[in-house]
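Supplementary Methods S3. Complex input for the fe (ii) ion-bound model.
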Amino acid sequence: MWKRAPVILGITSLLLACGGAPGSHSRNALDSGAHYAAAQKWAEAGDAVEALRSLEASFEGGLSSPMGVVTDERLSSLVADPLTRPSVRELLSRYVRESEAMLVTAKEPGDQIIVEGVIVDELSGAPISGAVVELVHTDRNGKYFSEDGTWNPRLFGYLKTADDGTFRVTTIKPGGYEDEEGVDVPTHIHFSIEATGYRAYGSEFLFDDDPMLIADALHQAGLERLRVAKRQAGSGVPAYLVTIPLQPLTN
Ligand SMILES: [Fe+2]
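Predicted complex, serialized as structure tokens:
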């Protein structure tokens, strides 16, 4: 079961022989990788409890890309299973560190898009680095999840803004849906943002090329109060840019 361990140890020995310092960073990286490999094996063996435990150990050990979990085929059962999905989200929210991530696997039906966000100070316009961003959206058919029961979204992301206040995700264009009163709502992505020194902010952003917005004067009139991702010029995967301001906390 642990056939890869000697290979990993071999690489570490080589690094040390080449002058690498035996510091905590390399030890953590080793631990993290070994725990991640264990998580993959446990997930494939159908032991979700041990898989989640190993995953947390790998995050704690400093895994550089926790969000890679959602596109890792070997861990796909953890996200697909509605019973373990909330635990994956909780872990990702706690160990968030990437400013760029894929939110969907290559198998996810739908049209791929890129969304870049910039989190800024509402008063100064200065970018806010280190802001934690949660994103949630529907699949192509407008569904957050397919099983019965409590809120348990299947497509999500946890990002931490870079030094220039940005995050960047590749995902699919969400599908629209009817609200509880049977009214169609425009395509949107929910966000929730926390940053030190700022009021937490949760809302949603729309897309400026949404035919529903363009056709609906009421929505048009309300756009100034909402966040709207703007389609960027260029060919290839459609890219959008959304700016989200945060309100500074006052003493
Ligand atoms: Fe929604």
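The two ends are 56 Å apart (CA to CA). The domain at 99-251 is CATH 2.60.130.10 (Protocatechuate 3,4-Dioxygenase, subunit A).
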